[in-house]
């Protein structure tokens, strides 16, 4: 599904990785590991198409993502360090706004049900800035239940989440994989116990 | 959940979000207007309140004040979305980025340009502008302020990744406002001589038409560069 072909990235004269190649098929989950500054986030941003690789190509279903970015974007769900949750709007407004700009529609009950599932009920009508870090992240993670994207790219999705939240997320990962999706994520958590088919990619810190 | 693709719905939700946010922080709307008012009132104080002189320089002052107060809101146009990651989400959406950008510029004009157009008659009174010039002032502002939002948004897109991008943005954008300023003030001048000023308006309209088509593409490229 996703092919990374000899991708090289250099930042401030430091080579983060060079000639990196791998493929990710549907139903697969890949964890990118490495110390801080190894280029995990840079790699994810290149694959998501936000940054340009110095060399190499990212192909999705055998087409370069740069050729037809909008249709690649329709199949992509990206949640980065900056989650794209507006601080002034409340949780419900944030979810509805995100759905609308991503060409999706969900009924009010559906959204409220999910907010309840993620422990945000009762907090859905206060501005997100008044919520705790973990709750703010949960507002962003509601998207995992409300998308038809095949490829999920998640940068540290477990940050600030409590144990229950982490478990909830892992269950959702599993059902996405079972439905034929693919996940590429960075995390410092050990996921080997949860996903039998987990692949790991280790980036080293280079000088 | 179901997929429901509609360009109009996507445009509307980006637009509504920005306008709602502006109304929740009312200072964002009121401050540029107060700035506009204060700049205009400073001139009679500095130059002297002689009506004939004020009538002569009024178009220039109103337009320069409009340029400056448009700049105030521009820095914030993409800043919050850049900081909280919404910009990345807009890029990674199935809709073209230029559509969302068009909606954001439209929202910016609604909260900054439109109030200036509506209040222009009041300010014209302060500057002793005659009725015929008043019509021209309102018309040029109506066509010119969206143009200011479009051109300014290109600068805002280019500088959004910089920590202190505000000043740099002004330096980038203000020179680009010169053509708008020339044709707008020339239209008002012509009208004060009771001559037809349709030509200048037509040129402004043509510039606006080009901006509506071309600026969103330029702005989205600028944003992609800033995000990467």
TrEMBL record, chain B:
GO terms for biological process: cytochrome c biosynthetic process; cytochrome complex assembly. It is found in: Cell inner membrane. InterPro entries: Cyt_c_biogenesis_CcmB, Cyt_c_CcmB_bac. It is a multi-pass membrane protein. GO terms for cellular component: plasma membrane. Keywords: Cell inner membrane, Cell membrane, Cytochrome c-type biogenesis, Membrane, Transmembrane, Transmembrane helix, Transport. Belongs to the CcmB/CycW/HelB family. Required for the export of heme to the periplasm for the biogenesis of c-type cytochromes. This is Heme exporter protein B. It comes from Pseudoalteromonas peptidolytica F12-50-A1. The gene is ccmB.
């Amino acid at each position: 599904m996703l092919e990374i072909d000899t991708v090289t990235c250099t930042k401030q004269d430091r080579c983060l990785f060079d000639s990196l190649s791998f493929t990710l098929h549907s139903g697969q989950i890949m964890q990118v590991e490495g110390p801080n500054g190894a280029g995990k986030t840079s790699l994810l941003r290149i694959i998501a198409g936000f940054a340009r690789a110095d060399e190499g190509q990212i192909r999705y279903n055998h087409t370069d993502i740069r050729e037809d970015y909008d249709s690649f974007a329709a199949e992509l769900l990206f949640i980065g360090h900056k989650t794209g949750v507006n601080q002034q709007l409340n949780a419900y407004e944030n979810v509805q706004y995100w759905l609308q700009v991503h060409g999706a529609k969900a009924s009010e009950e559906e959204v409220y049900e999910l907010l309840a599932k993620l422990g945000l009920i009762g907090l859905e009508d206060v501005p997100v800035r008044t919520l705790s870090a973990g709750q703010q992240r949960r507002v962003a993670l509601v998207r995992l239940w409300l998308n038809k994207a095949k490829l999920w790219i998640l940068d540290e999705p477990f940050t600030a989440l409590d144990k229950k939240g982490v478990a909830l997320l892992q269950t959702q990962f599993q059902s996405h994989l079972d439905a034929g999706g693919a996940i590429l994520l960075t995390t410092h958590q050990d996921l080997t116990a949860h996903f039998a088919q987990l692949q790991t990619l280790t980036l080293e810190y280079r000088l | 959940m179901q997929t429901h693709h509609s360009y109009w719905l996507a445009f509307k939700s980006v637009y509504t979000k920005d306008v709602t946010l502006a109304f929740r922080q009312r200072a964002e709307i009121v401050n540029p207007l107060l700035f506009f008012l204060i700049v205009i009132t400073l001139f009679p104080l500095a130059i002297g309140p002689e009506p004939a002189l004020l009538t002569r320089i009024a178009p220039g002052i109103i337009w320069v004040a409009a340029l400056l107060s448009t700049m105030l809101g521009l820095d914030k146009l993409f800043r919050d979305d850049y900081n909280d990651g919404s910009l990345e989400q807009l890029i990674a959406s199935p809709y073209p980025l230029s559509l969302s950008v068009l909606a954001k510029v439209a929202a910016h004009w609604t909260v900054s340009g439109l109030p200036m157009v509506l209040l222009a008659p009041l300010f014209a009174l302060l500057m002793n502008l005659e009725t015929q010039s008043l019509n021209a002032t309102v018309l040029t502002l109506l066509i010119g302020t969206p143009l200011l939002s479009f051109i300014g948004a290109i600068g805002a897109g280019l500088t959004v990744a910089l920590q202190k991008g505000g000043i740099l943005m002004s330096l980038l954008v203000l020179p680009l406002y010169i053509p708008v300023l020339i044709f707008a003030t020339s239209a008002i001048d012509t009208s004060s001589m009771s001559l037809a000023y349709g030509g200048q308006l037509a040129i402004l309209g043509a510039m606006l038409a080009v901006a509506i088509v071309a600026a969103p593409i330029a702005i989205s490229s600028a944003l992609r560069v800033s995000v990467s």
